[in-house]
Fold this sequence. Notes:
Chains A, B: This is HTH tetR-type domain-containing protein. Chains A, B: It comes from Candidatus Thiodiazotropha endoloripes. The first copy, chain A, is mostly helical. Chain A has two domains: 1-49, Orthogonal Bundle (Arc Repressor Mutant, subunit A); 60-200, Tetracycline Repressor, domain 2. Chain A is built from nine helices and no strands. In chain A, helix 8 (159-180) runs antiparallel to helix 9 (185-200). The longest helix of chain A has 30 residues, at 51-80.
Amino acid sequence: MPRDGTITRNKIMDIARQMVLNVGLTGTSVDKVIVEAGVTKGTFFYHFKTKHDLAAALIERYADQDQHHFHDYMAKAEQLARDPLQQLLIFIGLFIEMTEQLEDPFPGCLYAAYCYQSGAISKDVMSRIEEMMHFWRDQLSHKLKAVNQLYTPQLPVTHTQVADHLLTTFEGAFVLSKVMNEPKLASEQLIQCRNYLELLYRADG
Amino acid sequence: MPRDGTITRNKIMDIARQMVLNVGLTGTSVDKVIVEAGVTKGTFFYHFKTKHDLAAALIERYADQDQHHFHDYMAKAEQLARDPLQQLLIFIGLFIEMTEQLEDPFPGCLYAAYCYQSGAISKDVMSRIEEMMHFWRDQLSHKLKAVNQLYTPQLPVTHTQVADHLLTTFEGAFVLSKVMNEPKLASEQLIQCRNYLELLYRADG
């Protein structure tokens, strides 16, 4: 695809993502996206055959960015510390740093937006979201397994439950932050999740 | 309103709530609700002037139940223990017991469903949701203030941040539970939140 095509495609997707997070996918019409993006119908349909193609492309791009983000921060954390618990705490710390800089509430997670309209979304797309949640769970569980070889948790937990608590915190904090219009809420809640890991494994010694 | 009217009104609302949590409010049409509820147009419009009246009524009923639930469980916890930390742990424990019994994922929180379509919902309704989140925060902060007079947190936190972590856990766990189709995820995540409070205040002594 020529460079101009990619720019236009991304522009359409940016407008659509904003609209989906604001009025939901069922409230987003191709006509409105076309008007807001300032493109012709021909251009739109050159890039996306249907609204559902667009919905799938939005999740594909979001999942790619999410996965890239995960690997990027984990690589940084692994460079900054040898100890797996410290790596996890740094990993969360990098997300805290990022979300601390938000001046408006994070507009929301596409996974959550779609899950609250799953009846209007294809099974393939919902499976992709489920796959991404399993990606987070599996990657973090793998790291927590290494943590458990060095530290004994203070209370009975499984890797999966602790791993899920980070994603739970992200998803929940995005909802609260949107409703209460408090941009700092996301970083504050990630701090609670990091506190939990520190206390659970008594990282303080 | 006669008894039959209340039954019909609740039936319409049950159908609508299910639809809103499945396809979003923008995907829910009055016509579809009428067909699914098996009522006439006249009956529907006798109870609700517009779809937005229905949307507001759904939140009002949900908020009432939520608030009632909160007070009911807190009253039980306060009867079962004198210590404010134990009261909080029992309070969360009652929600753990309740969510442990789920055989299907919790269909979702109306606050979250609405917040992901807030652009299509009246400001009054969104303010009501914000008010409910402040209710949770204020009530729990009040209890945490009493906890802080007896226990010193192991890490620097504010009442608000710790209070918000319970609501964050509920909201996040409902999203993960829906996406991953795991009914037990909600109770497991509430256990992590209770673990956090136990460790933060070293409830074990």
